[in-house]
Amino acid sequence: YCRFSTSSRLLRMTRLSQRIAEGEYEERLDIPAGQQASQLDELDQLAASFNQMAEKLDKTESMRRQLIGDVTHELRTPLTAVKGYMEGLIDGVIPAEAQTYQLVHAEMDRLQRLVDDLQELSRVESGAIELKSEAVSVYDLVETVRSNLSRQYEDKGILLVTQLEPDLPMLTADKDRLLQVLTNLTGNALQYTPAGGKVVLRARRERSEMLVSVEDSGIGLAPEQIP
User: Fold this and answer.
1) What angle do CA 180, 184, 190 make, to 5 degrees?
2) What pLDDT, in 10s, does the model give residues 98-115?
3) Nearest by Cα to 174 from 186, 184, 182
4) What is the pTM of this model?
C-alpha cells in the first residue's frame, strides 16, 4: 500500500467516479490492507464506501446483462415455434386444423406471460408493488397450481404429484405473489421435463418455517449454474 497525498487521492476519486458514470465499474480505489474501518482515516473510509458502491453497481450490471440474455433466449423459443407453424401453414406442410391453431395460441400465451413477467419485474424494481399479507393455506395454493396446470401436464405426458404434510399451519403472506412464484416454478419444471417424467410439489414444516419445493426429473442444472 502506497500513501498518496490528499489532493492526488481526491483527484483519483474524481476520475474514477467519472468512469463509473460512463459505465466502467471494474476499477477500485486503493485502501490500507488488514485494518478495521475505525482505523482508517476519513478519505480511506470514503474510498472503502466508494469501492462498495462500485462493487454493487458492477454486480447489478452483470445481473442486467444476464437478464437480457435470459429474456432474449426465452422470447426466441416461442417466436421460433410460431414462425415454424406459420411457415408450415403457408407451405401446406402443416394442416390448417384446430390442433394447429391451439398450438400457436399456446405459444402466444407463453409470450404474453413473458411480457407480463417483465412488466412485473419493472414494477418490483421501482418499488411500485406492495405485498398484501393475509392468512393463506398452503393446501389451497398447491391445489390451485395443480388444477391450473394439470391439463398442460397431461398433454405433455408428465405426472404432477403433490406431497404435503398433514396439519400444516396457515401462512401469513401475499397469496397472489406466492401463487405466482409456485406457478412459475411448476411451469418451468414442465418446460424442462421430458415426456414420461414426474414433477413433485412438496410442503413441510422446517422448524418455525414452511418449506415448499418443486422437484422434477428433467435436465437439471449444471453445477456452475446452481449459485
Assistant:
1) 145
2) 888 888 888 888 788 888
3) 182
4) 0.55
